[in-house]
């Protein structure tokens, strides 16, 4: 993906679901105007979810997901069905493809039940209208008959998907709602060894863009340039945003009258649940010898020798608690269904995950009674500056103070 492309995490995720040979892949190809998915008369041709980032008019940047048949069979079929169910956790709009010559089956009704349980907007697409004659009629506002073979009603289907997607527009901003035009915002950006050469990592790019959209001014510095930059600006800075790994030093160099937070904390608010993850960090005080801690990252990147997730955070937690702890790690799309064995979950900011999947993961932890926090909140807490890092969000700070 180029630097000018919309990140996958900010694209509307459209999942196509249904039974084998209902014509999912044919409809996907018709909707996208590309041979995105392999089409065959053999049942179960799609064996794993297929992802494709693209522009879909009239909607804009989307992520299309073609899934295996929900009625797949055998041991491998069970694994494929599990992957299909996992796709639901990141889907913004669900498209159920039904073979119009057969009508809805029990597995289709079960999928609709899943959509409704998760609060997903969805459309039921009866495919193969060309084989059904004049009896093919729309039964409700979210049902449509199409023919992937002939291309009939495909444009109308795209319009319907676009209308449903419009209801899923994110309401939260990264930082723009905290700013006024012409505000100065200083971003402290260490040169991260894990970032590709010549680039900033995604949370930094997205935050800069959000600041520009607020008509504010972003100033990017390395951590050793912060103190001198604040002195030379000649104007009061509205906010300092730092990489969490240098939280302690940046806090020391930032005057008390300038609000301070981190990229990770901003993303906890942007696509997660800031209050839940702030409450969850307190679980570090109750950790005991032998407890297991799960550390999750939403991306898969090349691990460096001093990797933040697998090396630094376990080291900092052990140093802070003085306990002998066990750590497990997940990355990318992997996230365990059962969390009961863990005393605590620590998640990254989730810049590579869309809002729905990030909130699903947090909800899993909350439902199972497992405290969950994120990298930036944990590092602020360990460094004794969590209260200060929450000052830009007075409602959260007040809620936590009232609870205490």
Fold and architecture overview:
With 404 residues, this protein is α/β, with parallel strands linked by helices. The protein contains 14 helices and 14 strands. The radius of gyration is 24 Å and the shape is globular. Residues 37-46 have low confidence and may be disordered.
- Termini gap: 45 Å
Which class best fits the helix and strand makeup? alpha/beta
| Multimerization state | single chain
Radius of gyration: 24 Å
Sheet with the most strands, sense and barrel status:
6 strands, mixed
**Average pLDDT score:** 85
Q: Provide the low-confidence segments as ranges.
A: 37-46
Characteristic terms for this protein:
single chain; 404 residues; alpha/beta; 6-stranded mixed sheet; 4-stranded parallel sheet; 14 helices; 14 strands; globular
Structure at a glance:
The protein has 404 residues and is α/β, with parallel strands linked by helices.
Q: SSE layout and pairings?
A:
Layout: E1 12-18, H1 24-32, E2 50-56, E3 60-66, H2 74-88, E4 93-99, H3 106-117, E5 122-127, E6 143-145, H4 154-166, E7 184-188, H5 202-213, E8 217-221, H6 226-233, E9 239-242, H7 247-253, E10 260-262, H8 263-271, H9 274-280, E11 292-297, H10 308-321, E12 326-331, E13 344-347, H11 355-367, E14 372-374, H12 375-382, H13 386-389, H14 394-403
Parallel strand pairs: 1-3, 1-4, 4-5, 5-6, 7-8, 7-9, 9-10, 11-12, 11-13, 13-14
Antiparallel strand pairs: 2-3
């Amino acid at each position: 993906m180029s630097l000018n492309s919309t990140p996958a995490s900010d694209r509307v995720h459209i999942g196509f679901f249904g039974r084998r040979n209902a014509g999912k892949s044919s409809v996907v190809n018709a909707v996208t105007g590309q041979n995105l998915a392999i089409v065959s008369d053999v049942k179960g041709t799609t064996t794993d979810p297929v992802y494709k980032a693209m522009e879909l008019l009239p909607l804009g940047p989307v992520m299309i997901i073609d899934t295996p048949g929900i009625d797949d069979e055998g041991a491998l079929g069970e694994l494929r069905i599990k992957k299909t169910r996992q796709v639901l956790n990141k889907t913004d709009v669900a498209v159920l493809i039904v073979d119009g010559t057969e009508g809805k089956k029990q597995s289709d009704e079960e999928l609709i039940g899943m959509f409704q349980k998760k609060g997903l907007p969805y459309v039921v697409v009866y495919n193969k209208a060309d084989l059904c004659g004049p009896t093919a009629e729309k039964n409700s506002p979210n049902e449509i008959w199409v023919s992937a073979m002939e291309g009939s009603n495909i444009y109308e289907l795209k319009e319907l998907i676009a209308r449903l997607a419009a209801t899923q527009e994110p309401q939260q901003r990264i930082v723009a709602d905290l700013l006024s035009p012409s505000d100065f915002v200083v971003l402290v950006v260490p040169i991260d060894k894990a970032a590709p050469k010549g680039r900033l990592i995604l949370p930094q790019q997205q935050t800069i863009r959000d600041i520009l959209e607020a008509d504010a001014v972003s100033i990017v510095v390395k951590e050793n340039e912060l103190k001198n930059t604040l002195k030379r600006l000649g104007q009061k800075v509205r906010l300092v945003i730092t990489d969490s790994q240098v939280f302690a030093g940046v806090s020391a160099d930032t005057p008390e009258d300038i609000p301070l937070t981190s990229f990770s904390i901003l993303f906890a608010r942007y696509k997660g649940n800031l209050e839940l993850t702030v409450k969850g960090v307190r679980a570090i005080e109750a950790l005991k010898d032998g407890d297991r801690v799960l550390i999750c990252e939403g991306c898969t990147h090349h691990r460096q020798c001093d990797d933040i997730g697998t090396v630094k955070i376990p080291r900092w937690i052990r140093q802070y608690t003085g306990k002998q702890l066990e750590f497990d790690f997940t990355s990318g799309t992997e996230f365990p269904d059962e969390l009961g064995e863990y005393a605590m979950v620590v998640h990254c900011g989730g810049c590579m995950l869309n809002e729905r999947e990030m909130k699903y993961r947090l909800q899993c932890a909350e439902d199972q009674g497992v405290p969950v926090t994120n990298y930036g909140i944990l590092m602020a807490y360990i460094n004794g500056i969590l209260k200060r890092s929450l000052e830009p969000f007075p409602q959260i700070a007040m809620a936590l103070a009232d609870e205490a």
